[in-house]
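Colleagues,

For the teaching module next term, I've prepared a clean inverse folding example: a structure given as tokens, and then the sequence designed for it. I'd like students to try predicting residues themselves before seeing the answer, so please don't circulate the second half yet.
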């Protein structure tokens, strides 16, 4: 049985980005492992626009009643949700921009975090509808933030994943990349990725 991994990259630095390097290492190791297939989506090369009211509104119109424009707008979200559901593992390669995630990645989450599709509201709060999936976060950072109050990125990502029902999340940090710790941090992250790929 093949395990399918969806790898999302969102670095504006392209091949120079350290999160891209981590994603590439994951893809290389995955290619060496039998039974693990990888799909890559570059959210910078295939940038999504910021979510607007017209697109949000299109989701709320029954499919059979949508105009041609509304169908086209809804298809953007539908396709991304179907792609997510077609995979077993979601791998997020994420740089840290001003203590947050890249806007390109936020635009993706804005399309897949959809009430009635990937979560629903209940009397006791939202309930995730994406079951049986796990996620891996590959976090590349110039400074040292993990475990501190400044790391608002990790809780944000886990919160959005959890909203969909993805609560099994592994995080690989490559930190201090601009603090003279680059080589050691990258090597440590690569070793952690190797161990993760072996377990998938």
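(Answer key — instructors only)
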């Amino acid at each position: 049985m093949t395990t399918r991994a969806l790898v999302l990259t969102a670095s504006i630095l392209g091949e120079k980005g350290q999160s891209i390097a981590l994603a590439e290492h994951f893809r290389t190791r995955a290619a060496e492992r039998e039974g693990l297939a990888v799909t890559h989506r570059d959210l910078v090369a295939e940038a999504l626009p910021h979510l607007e009211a017209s697109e949000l509104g299109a989701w709320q119109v029954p499919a059979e009643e949508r105009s041609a424009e509304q169908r086209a707008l809804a298809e953007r979200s539908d396709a991304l949700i179907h792609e997510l559901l077609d995979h077993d593992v979601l791998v997020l390669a994420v740089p840290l921009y001003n203590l947050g995630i890249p806007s390109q990645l936020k635009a993706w989450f804005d399309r897949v975090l959809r009430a009635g599709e990937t979560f629903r509201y209940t009397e006791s709060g939202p309930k995730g509808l994406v079951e049986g999936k796990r996620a891996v976060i590959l976090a590349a950072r110039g400074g040292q933030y993990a475990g501190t109050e400044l790391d608002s990125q990790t809780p944000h990502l886990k919160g959005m994943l959890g909203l969909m029902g993805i609560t099994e999340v592994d995080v690989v940090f490559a930190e201090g990349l601009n603090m003279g710790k680059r080589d050691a941090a990258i090597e440590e992250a690569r070793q952690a990725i190797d161990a993760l790929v072996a377990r998938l």
